[in-house]
Amino acid sequence: RAKRPAGAPDKKLARRIGKVGVVGAGLMASQFALLFLRRLQVPVVITDIDQARVDKGLDYIRGEIATLLGKGRISQDESNRLNALLTGTTDRSLFADCDWVIEAVFEELGVKQQVFGEIERIVSPEAILATNTSSLSVEQIGAGLEHPERLVGFHFFNPVAVMPLIEVVKTPFTNDETLATAMATAAKLKKNAVITRDTPGFVVNRILAKVLGEAMHAVDTGTPFSVVDDAVKPFGLPMTPFVLLELVGLKVGAHVLDTHHSAFPERFFRSESLHELADLGRIYERDGKGGIKGVDKQALAIV
Ligand code: 3HC
């Protein structure tokens, strides 16, 4: 018999998910919206604050469906079905009959609290609410909820299609039905799930913040980007610190470091220059074939 993951409640408590709502149509949200579509084969509604963002998310998802078809991973029938199950809108009232609504909006506590406050008024009292926050407190995100017992952290990793883990974050309020549904959903998405405490960075980002923070600190104190990355390469990490920072997004990276520094000022660095780099959006110049040409001149000028 398969072992029940540590802290997981009885699987029988899991609720059926017949429709999924996704708040935010950015890259992370679009990546997991596709995963929900593909693995659950249920209607998925993506939303954002304006139609241009929604359309960008829809284009990404449709493009990935076309790629899967091109690679022979899905049939023409499945491709048609997935496209038909996908809706994009700015109108959150379409969440009314969703059983699971997950958000990946801007990493700011007030924004997430407001989003969930609005969503709770739209969805049924049984619907489960999930947040993909990287390092905010899930309990605080749900502070204004009438039913905080239905809120759970459901933290994906970049690139969602490939990374095998989901951190399921339990708050003191999360009830067993919610937790069981989150675990069952992760299994349907074919991901490994671990249940983590609601503590800054959960498990993975807490460790990553150490590595990325030290890497930025080395740069901030005079070691060039490429020297840090080249020095780390032989240790067998799939990506060096700054390539990874570019993958997760420099804004998200800067935010993760800030959250850790605020919680544990003696243990974690924050980096002002990472914030400035985030406005630039990149560290390395690319050669157009996925290779690195060199450190971006503006990035060099910032630190
Ligand atoms: N989207 C979809 N599929 C992708 C992808 C993407 N962005 N990137 C890679 N893939 C797929 C490729 O299509 C390929 O699939 P195929 O074999 O079916 O064609 C497969 O992944 C392997 O791709 P590559 O040959 O390019 O693989 P690499 O060996 O270079 O590995 C990698 C790519 C898996 C991204 C690897 O470099 C890696 O594991 N990097 C570390 C990523 C990581 O640590 N992520 C966690 C970041 S932290 C985070 O997200 C949390 C947040 O809160 C900050």
From TrEMBL:
Domain of life where this protein originates: Bacteria
Domain 3-hydroxyacyl-CoA dehydrogenase C-terminal: 201-292
Coiled coil: none
Ranges of residues in domain 3-hydroxyacyl-CoA dehydrogenase NAD binding: 19-198
Family: Belongs to the 3-hydroxyacyl-CoA dehydrogenase family. In the central section; belongs to the 3-hydroxyacyl-CoA dehydrogenase family.
Protein name: 3-hydroxyacyl-CoA dehydrogenase
Lineage: Bacteria, Bacillati, Actinomycetota, Actinomycetes, Micrococcales
Portion held of the full protein: 331 to 633 of 720
